[in-house]
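Can anyone check this?
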Amino acid sequence: MRNTLNPATAYLKAAQAILDRIVATQTENIQRAADICVDTIAAEGLVHLFGTGHSRMFIEEMYPRHGSFPGFHPIVELSLTFHNQVVGANGQRQAMFIEHVEGLARQILRNFVLRPPDSFMIFSNSGVNEVIVDMALEAKALDLPVIAVLSVDHCSASAPKHSSGKKLLDIADVTIDNCTPAGDAMVTVDGLEDPVGPGSTIGAAAVVNAIKCQVAAGLTARGKPPLVLSSSVFSGDASAAKFDASYDDYRRRVRRVYGA
């Protein structure tokens, strides 16, 4: 966006616009996604979480995080998400190459035992890279519902890359738009050719936590209140015991997916 605001204020205004669009347009799909998660977790299943690149952030935001609870299973491949090195071994070029390799998702899922009532939540701003589409197709082949969190604007503007000709948008049972404009970066600086300030972090993180809150309400309404990782600000000395209880419940829930 180009205007008379200083760049920092312009970014904050654009971020607020994303949140406003999510409230105005995505509440129904957030509820639909939460319903799938509640059905899964209440039936002792797991909501498996997957993303490549910076989408790893939203997986970690779901669990373990203060104010979070078991029932979600992060599947994080370091080769696809470890960006700290940038160059050299484990560099960014390698990660960006690997996420275009078809067939990798099937190899990843061979390490786990997945079955209904499990479900899948996949994060991708573009929704077109091969590993992401592969993972969605593999989840559907296992008869698991797929929730997608992506930029509809970016996905719609991007050509499919997977040999199936499909995008994540075409496969998901529920798609939640992170309401970020195509290209992600939102602020134009005078004298600088390329825009800066990505918005997908704001949109996807907001969606994750909105789903999380709705799932907590749904589980509690069914008489299965989740074991929350609670800050000592709320729980005092009981906070440590609540963390242990949450971690123990997570361990119990994920034991099955590792064939134990």
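Reply from J.R.: I decoded it. The chain is about 45% helix and 10% strand.
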